User: Which sequence fits this backbone?
């Protein structure tokens, strides 16, 4: 199970969560996403990996509460577990050679 370690509302409709998911954190790269299921009857929904920490085994997600699945996710609290947190999926973003804009 994938325990919610941190939950922080960023504004009334956007929430940040840090999830205990060592196997996902181990392979996560920029630009990839996970698919979560908040409960056994929940819908599978993709969310971008906002950050990860391989040493701590955590993955950060930031989501907008727009419908059933994100409402169900937002109803969970620190200490609760997600049923599924699968990934990472997609090809990683290519950052090599790119510079910050001035
Ligand atoms: C690869 C991928 C990565 C994604 N990463 C993120 C992410 O990091 N954070 C995140 O918040 N979302 C992300 N999304 C979008 C997220 O998967 C959808 O918002 C998802 O449909 C939410 O499911 P739901 O059941 O809560 O709402 P749904 O029932 O699917 O949607 C409810 C209603 O809201 C509308 N709606 C859906 N999204 C939006 C929106 N953004 N603004 C306004 N109306 C909307 C739908 O058209 C529908 O009418 C990502 C999607 C993809 C494909």
Assistant:
């Amino acid at each position: 199970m994938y325990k919610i370690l941190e939950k922080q509302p960023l504004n009334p409709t956007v929430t940040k969560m840090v999830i205990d998911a060592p196997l996902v954190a181990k392979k996560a790269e920029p630009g990839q996403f996970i698919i979560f299921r908040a409960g056994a009857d929940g819908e599978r929904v993709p969310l971008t990996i906002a950050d990860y920490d391989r040493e701590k085994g955590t993955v950060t997600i930031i989501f907008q509460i727009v419908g059933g699945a994100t409402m169900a996710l937002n109803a969970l609290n620190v200490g609760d577990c997600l049923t599924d947190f699968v990934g990472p999926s997609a090809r990683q973003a290519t950052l090599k050679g790119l510079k910050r804009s001035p």
Observations:
- The mean pLDDT is 96.
- The longest helix spans residues 68-75.
